[in-house]
Fold this sequence. Notes:
A: 146 residues, mainly alpha, 4 helices, 0% strand, elongated, B: 97 residues, flat
Amino acid sequence: MNxxxxxxxxxxxxxxxxxxxxxxRRGMVFWLLxxxxxxxxxxxxxxxxxxxxxxxxxxxxxxxxxxxGPARSGAQLFFAFYFFSTALxxxxxxxxxxxxxxxxxxxxxxxxxxxxPVRVVGLYWTFIDIIWLxxxxxxxxxxRAS
Amino acid sequence: MTGVxxxxxxxxxxxxxxxxxxxxxVFIFPGWGRVGVAVIAAAMVAVAAFGFMDLREEGAPxxxxxxxxxxxxxxxxxxxxxxxxTRTLYPTVIETP
Lengths: 146, 97
């Protein structure tokens, strides 16, 4: 679900970029708002639902870690990587949201022949998507694959 | 404009199909293994780079730099997760000389 949200947000940003290249600021703002909403949905699901469930289950590494037995140490190591990497990715996404909000606020300054900031922020936005495309299989899939 | 949107839509659709294949590689066709998952993930990164970042409009030097960046990203994140995913012995045995 989260991965699909990020892919959709990159698509929305791409359409917004295409709109400003055609001279439509209103179209750009509309699609960039959609990209922002999808990014916010990702953050809400990741930190508001997934992290919350994990923390309630006592999966944060430390003295109160809820997994016991022989797997405890390995599980703590995995969840340390999980919390650190998802937090770092989330931080980058929040910075990206700020940049997209800045592009929206400056929309009147952009035109088909002058829209480099829109393009550069778009590259950063897709870069966040790409980091997730690497992180997602490492965290959720590789460990389950044979 | 329509052409750009169709291309972006095709990119997003292809990435969704690859995401489905990635999930299938784990839950439906476990024989594909970790290598299968890694290959599909690399394909998704390439599709995002060429489809959303317009890498296809650039020349070979930019492609090379982008490939190097993706390689280092995979190495850094891969090495970071290698220990949590593969270690079976706890605590680590430290041999004193």
